[in-house]
Amino acid sequence: MIIPVILSGGSGTRLWPLSRALYPKQLLSLIGEKTMLQDTVIRLVSTDDTGPVYCVCNESHRFLVAEQLHEINTDIGEIILEPQGRNTAPAAALAAMLIAEKHPGATMLILPADHVILDPAAFGRAVAAGKSVAEKGSLVTFGIVPVSPETGYGYIRASVNSDGKLAAYPVLEFVEKPDKTTAEFYLASGDYFWNSGIFLFKAEAYLQELEAHVPAIVAACRAALQKSHKDLDFLRVDIDAFCASPSDSIDYAVMEKTSKAALVPLNAGWNDVGAWSALWDVHLRDNAGNVKKGDVLVQDVKNCYIHATSRLVTAVGIDSLIVVETADAVLVASKESVQDVKMLVEELKRKERDEAEIHRRVYRPWGSYETVDFSERFKVKRIIVKPGAALSLQKHHYRAEHWIVVKGTALVRVEDRESILYEDQSTYIPVGALHRLENTGETPLELIEVQSGSYLGEDDIVRLEDRYGRQ
Question: What span, in angstroms and rounded, lies between the C-alpha atoms of 152 and 66?
């Protein structure tokens, strides 16, 4: 049996402003109708004998991850929450320990949640080839057959035999991102493959090699699981124990050191979508070489990627540019400079700008809210509450709130009084008053919230009760 392990801890800063810390690229629909996380799960139907899905994700993404997995009826083995990012080796170790206990002898398929694979059938064939090798004790990595002298990827050199008929080749070395001349040599040699970050091995085999090379990771992860506990759909590992683990990748911790590494070539239209130019690469383009998403109007524009999310975006007389618009930010960059978008994000973080972390529309386990307008002493939000969902029982020290129902029916509690509000009705919550909002109907509840007070930050919330386990 193959147990898929999806690693969904990344932040995708190079795809800002669409990808943000609290809503990263794997949770976005960048290629088709489904999100990248959902596409990763759906792709598994091309593989045989697949068991329940294990997912390792950032705690702040947990409700979005769970909701997206449930939307596509995923057979979930466990959603493991990382209290802090420690790279891929510890994340895979947590999953391996659980799989070794619950599915002894199973093979783990480690998959990043944010990759594009345009040919799922070819992917399935490669996994089947890798499984036969992994079941004999090898640790398999999938090497992407290069189609260009790419300088943005690490490479793997394998011992490729002359007839090219083996299912897998011994790994000779991992090499860092090369310069252009070196990349051209790699492409011509036929012995070098792009490093995909996709792996296949038995859980026990991975843990054995990890124990041999970085035992501190194994010890920390074991301790973190021993003190773990269930929280709704999630498995929470012990924070202190897990954070004591060294931060290391599967490549560095195991694959570069083990004598059991094998490479299976993968030629399936793979792309890690590491920058906006990669999205231009994988999308269908018009006759002028443009990719246009959303409400876009152009004149004399060539070879551009233009993405509009909330308004009309127009362009005249430009070539080879990336233009991405969201409700609160616009990015304009040349294709050659898109790797530097991460530097913009770092600058936003240094300046403590919200645009680095969140969108104007913020998702919560009960629904979402969007800031419509704000000034020094007031803020206006559009709030949507899913059917059957409820905000926490809470109070605020510094702000009062007015709620106006736009659509649906709201059950409102203010102190000890409960009331039903219908469309066009409103209520007032004074500063310090205990209150809760619930949607008891079968359709989404929409309302406008007007806040007023001396401080309007999101941290002015004292939760007394919460069905989603938030502090």
Answer: 32
Report the distance separating Cα 233 and Cα 291, nearest Å.
38
Give phi and psi for 73, each to the nearest 5: 55, 45
Q: Are residues 207 and 312 in the same domain?
A: no
Predicted confidence band at 47 (pLDDT cuts at 50, 70, 90)?
A: confident
Q: Do both 376 and 336 map to the same domain?
A: no
- Of residues 211 and 48, the one with the higher pLDDT is 211
State whether 213 and 147 are in the same domain. yes
Q: Which of 284, 313, 342 is the last residue of a domain?
A: 342
Residues 156-162: contacts with CB within 8 Å, 24+ apart? 156/192, 156/193, 156/194, 156/195, 156/263, 157/191, 157/192, 158/191, 158/192, 158/193, 158/263, 159/191, 160/190, 160/191
Residue 79 sits in the same domain as residue 196: yes
Residue 55 lies in a domain: yes
pTM score = 0.92
Are 197 and 316 in the same domain? no
In sequence order, the 6+-apart residues with CB closer than 8 A to the CB of 297 are: 312, 313, 314, 315
Q: Are residues 255 and 304 in the same domain?
A: no
SS3 state at 353: coil
Give the domain extent around 309.
276-342
The C-alpha atoms of residue 96 and residue 343 are separated, in whole angstroms, by 35
CA–CA separation, 4 and 50 (whole Å): 7
For 142, the enclosing helix (H) or strand (E) is strand 139-144
Torsion, CA 281, CA 284, CA 288, CA 292, rounded to 10: -90
Give me 357's structure tokens: 């972390």
Helix and strand totals (H; E) in the chain: 11, 30
Distance of CA 324 to the CA centre of its chain: 19
Angstrom CA distances, 403 to 315, 375, 383, 411, stand at: 40, 18, 9, 12
3-class state of residue 121 by DSSP: helix
Assign residue 268 a region (left: φ > 0; alpha: ψ between -120 and 50; beta: otherwise): alpha
**Using alpha carbons only, what angle is made at residue 277 by residues 276 and 278, rounded to the nearest 5 degrees?**
90
> Residue 175 half-sphere exposure, CB side, CA atoms within 13 Å?
18
User: What are the pLDDT digits (tens) for 343-380?
Assistant: 999 999 999 999 999 999 999 999 999 999 999 899 99
Do residues 33 and 102 share a domain? yes
Within-domain flag for 348: no
